[in-house]
Q: What sequence folds into this?
């Protein structure tokens, strides 16, 4: 359990840093992080951190792929987590 929590903490921090970095590069009109990488970080477990960071710093909030995709990823991850917890208990 400790290993899983540590993993999600690390992937969440990475997601926050990468999202903020991409926003910073966007404001400077410089090379950006690809959308595939941002979505991959969400799929790998950083979805909640990515979504809240996006909303907080107003990054990718006009992009339908992110504003619908990341909540969908969160929903799927929640269902999977609930199924895993149900089978454990």
A:
């Amino acid at each position: 359990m400790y290993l899983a929590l540590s993993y999600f903490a690390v992937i969440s921090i990475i997601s926050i840093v990468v999202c903020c970095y991409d926003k910073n590069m966007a404001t400077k009109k410089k090379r950006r992080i690809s959308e595939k990488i941002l979505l991959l970080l969400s799929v790998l477990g950083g979805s909640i951190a990515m979504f809240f960071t996006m909303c907080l710093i107003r990054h990718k909030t006009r992009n339908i792929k992110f504003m619908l995709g990341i909540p969908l990823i969160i929903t799927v991850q929640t269902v999977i987590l609930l199924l895993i917890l149900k089978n454990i208990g």
